[in-house]
Amino acid sequence: MAKENFKVYVTRIIPQPGFDILHENLTNVRINEEDHLLSREELLENVKGLDGLLPLLTEQIDGEVMDAAGKQLKIIANHAVGFDNIDVPAATERGIMVTNTPGVLTDATSDHAWALLFTTARRVVESDKFTRAGKYKGWGPMMYLGGDITGRTLGVVGAGRIGNAVAEKSSGFKMQILYCDEFRNENLENEYGAKKVSFEELLSEADFVSVHVPLLDSTHHLFNDAAFKQMKKTAYLINTSRGPVVDEAALVRALQNGEIAGAGIDVYEDEPKIHPGLTSLDNAVLTPHTASATIETRTKMATMAAQNLVDGLKGKRPANLLNPEVLT
Ligand code: GLV
Q1: Considering only CA atoms, which residue is closest to atom 5 of ligand 1?
Q2: Which label site among 108, 113, 145, 254 has the fewest CB atoms less than 10 Å from its CB?
Q3: Among this protein's residues, is 253 annotated catalytic?
């Protein structure tokens, strides 16, 4: 297969099969071999002269970055399903294609939402620390009491691919499903008896609130002081979507004041920083944005992003093009 000499940069180390696709098709592939988080200056420097960029969700790709790359930049192939790190309108204005990796991380991410739900409700992390510390001196009827899961009400905020999968996976636990979304989810309603309700109703009824909305102006700080006050004191918040959907300071207040029982959090408002209040709370289980972190899923994300990049450069419409208007 003839290789093309397009200049491409990959901003971190991704699973090898992704690099294999790039190397099989292109001769000029540069990688951030040190695998460190790029500073803004390093990003602006490294994009110069590129035809294609494969970034991660940690890099803000805005008009300034696109202009630093130059007019020849054809495609930005994000290694994530979420694309709030990319200014898509700015790319469209400049005729640059933008792609993402939908579908391949639906199961891993929804599995992780369940992992957080279990560990939070059943206080697994706290009791693991206690046990390891040699503090377990005998069974006690009042030790580490958590919240029931089976038969409770699951509230899914955003019933797209991942929210849908989280809800479907609740059926073994005989849960009632409430969801809120601008669209109806007929699969959840018809196959799982889910009820579409308002955000406020969901907050006041659900025992577990799992968040699956994209980060938009309208979802920024959707979970604020008022939202936490509407939730049950016995309820848990699970967030595997984007950090800024939750006002982290308000979440800390709600957890400290017992307005909610606990939270399982994978994403943060100002990653990688975490509100110091959150890290000192036992009723919060915190993971470092690893909801899609399985070998199989990260491999699929890498190959999908690489294939999108190669296709876009070779003049073939990438399968996951977010701004098809650039091709018209
Ligand atoms: C992960 O957060 C993703 O958007 O892929």
Answers
A1: 80
A2: 145
A3: no
* pLDDT tens digits for range 2-28: 788 999 999 999 999 999 999 999 999
What lines the ligand 1 site, CB under 6 Å? Answer: 57, 80-82, 105, 292
Give residue 328's pLDDT: 87
Structure tokens at 259: 């307005």
What is the model's pLDDT at position 267? 98
Do the first three CATH levels of 4-103+295-327 and 106-286 match, i.e. the same topology? yes
Residue 94 annotated to the active site: no
294, exposed or middle or buried, with CB in 10 Å at 0-12, 13-18, 19+?
middle
CB 238 within 8 A of CB 245: no
The CATH fold of domain 4-103+295-327: Rossmann fold (3.40.50)
Claim: this prediction has a pTM higher than 0.90: yes
CATH tag, 106-286? 3.40.50.720
Domain borders along the chain are 4-103+295-327, 106-286
Kindly state the average pLDDT of the residues 306-321. Answer: 98
Average pLDDT in the 108-137 region? Answer: 98
Kindly give the number of the ligand 1 atom that is closest to the alpha carbon of 242.
2
